[in-house]
Amino acid sequence: MRVLVTGGAGFIGSNLVDRLLGEGHEVQVVDDLSSGDRANLAAAARSERFALHELDIRDPRVADLAAGFEPEVICHLAAQISVRRSVADPLNDARLNVEGTVSVLMAAQRAGTRKVVFASSVAVYGRPDVIPVPGGAATDPRSPYAASKLAGETYLAAFKALHGIDYTTLVLSNVYGPRQSPEGEAGVVAIFTDALLDGKATVVYGDGGQTRDYIYVDDVVDGFVRACGEAGGGGRFNLGTGLQTTDRELHTLVAAAAGAPDGPGFAPQRLGDLPAMAVDPAPALDALGWRPRTDLADGLKSTVEWARGRRSGQ
Ligand SMILES: NC(=O)c1ccc[n+]([C@@H]2O[C@H](COP(=O)([O-])OP(=O)(O)OC[C@H]3O[C@@H](n4cnc5c(N)ncnc54)[C@H](O)[C@@H]3O)[C@@H](O)[C@H]2O)c1
């Protein structure tokens, strides 16, 4: 299969690229390297079935290269990923995430692409009453980032209705794992890992009781690969564990994996922080045969091992 991955030099995208190449697919990446890193694609670059195009997804040349490559599937992950940056500059967020997604869909239309698999976010659920959030729950965007992700989802449906391009939306909870930069939506794992390995102070906000649903990157990649097939067409699926982990519990687990003391400092709760989040992945099991497989403690061990290896230059 030929697959175009936007944002393929980033944390999740580069892990997806490696898995697709490992399965024998032809993979091309469009990434402007704004937050991604060429080093994430070092292994991929050794494959003859791989190419990186250093371009903004809104660049008209993306449609030209897609028309030449004729990808059967486009996995669309390129995005402005920070909720806080979206609040500070909503217009920039809309340009990257709305205009960017429409540009990718237009490229898909011209290239005759069968399906687009889209990375959405649990941010679209706002402050949910029921946790874990069920698959079909109502959306309630409360940040420009959530609004731009939801707009992307809506455009997928419009392009399917108009041009017959199939799609699957994957609603990602807090993804963690190797190659994550400390600035991501779930950057707290990377932040704790870096600080604890470097013997620096760590901070937990509020009483440490805020919860998130941490999902390992290999599991998320598995969801994307499954969605590249026919299954799940026209659907949106939560990719999470359904389990809530408090900030304080997470700190204990990362400290144990890093062999560091479990003594974070505490700072006042940040305004606007969501008190709790987890999503129910059951519909993804029915439609895609997907389930989360990686236990949090094991995933954190692999993440810390990767961060250690990077420090020793491996
Ligand atoms: N990490 C998470 O926990 C999480 C949670 C929910 C949703 N998501 C979504 O998953 C996707 C991947 O996130 P990630 O954590 O790997 O982030 P990332 O920042 O590592 O990856 C995003 C990639 O997109 C590229 N990019 C950004 N704007 C671009 C543009 N205009 N043109 C071309 N490339 C561009 C960046 O250089 C980067 O390589 C994003 O769409 C994000 O919104 C991530």
From TrEMBL:
Pfam families per UniProt: Epimerase
Signal peptide positions on this chain: none
Domain NAD-dependent epimerase/dehydratase, first and last residues per copy: 3-240
Gene3D superfamilies hit by this protein: NAD(P)-binding Rossmann-like Domain (3.40.50.720), UDP-galactose 4-epimerase, domain 1 (3.90.25.10)
Identification of the protein by name: UDP-glucose 4-epimerase
Protein's organism: Sinosporangium album
